[in-house]
Amino acid sequence: MVPILVALWLGTACKAELPQQLANDASGDFPCTTFADLLISYSPPGTEGGSELGQRALGAPDNDSVEVLTDAVLSVGFVGLGSVTDANGADIRVHGDVSPGAEIAVYVASIDGDFVYSGSLVPGATDVDLSIGTVRAASSIQLVGITGQATIDAFEALQTTCTN
Fold first, then answer.
1. What is the tens place of the pLDDT at every residue in 63-109?
2. What is the pTM for the complete model shown?
3. Is residue 164 part of a domain?
4. How far is residue 6 CA from its own chain's centroid?
5. Does 163 fall in a domain?
6. Other beta carbons within 10 Å of 28
7. How many domains does the chain have?
8. In contact, 79 and 37? CB cutoff 8 Å
9. Of 153, 113, 119, 154, whose CA–CA distance to 137 is shortest?
10. CB 156 within 8 A of CB 30
11. Could you tell me which of 1, 40, 16, 36 has the C-alpha nearest to residue 133?
């Protein structure tokens, strides 16, 4: 019964929302980078709001990680890059470590779309293929802790590059 309730909760429409100024002009003060550069939200379990600790998952890998535990939610955006486009194979690498027995659900969204399930992170498998979901260009990615824990250092677009 519990897995069904979790699946129903995770399957509810969850819209990727950027702050209004970014939704209107994504270029802003965000130089182009292939790494996630905007913390949308981070909600560790047992908290009522967000936590700025999610900032640790932004930029290139630097060994300063954030934990995604069971029931935690971490959402980041690729504002400087604009979006990560779907290509053959893995499109986003989640730099970090997933503990043995852990599962972290992955959702992706376009700038004006809802988050769509796009697989799971498990030990030894931290790449995301957008073709699993129905999103052709993802501007944000969301991790939801299902079981266990993961330490997340960075999110990297693997096949989309900066054009400026």
1. 999 999 999 999 999 999 999 999 999 999 999 999 999 999 999 99
2. 0.81
3. no
4. 19
5. no
6. 13
7. 1
8. yes
9. 113
10. no
11. 16
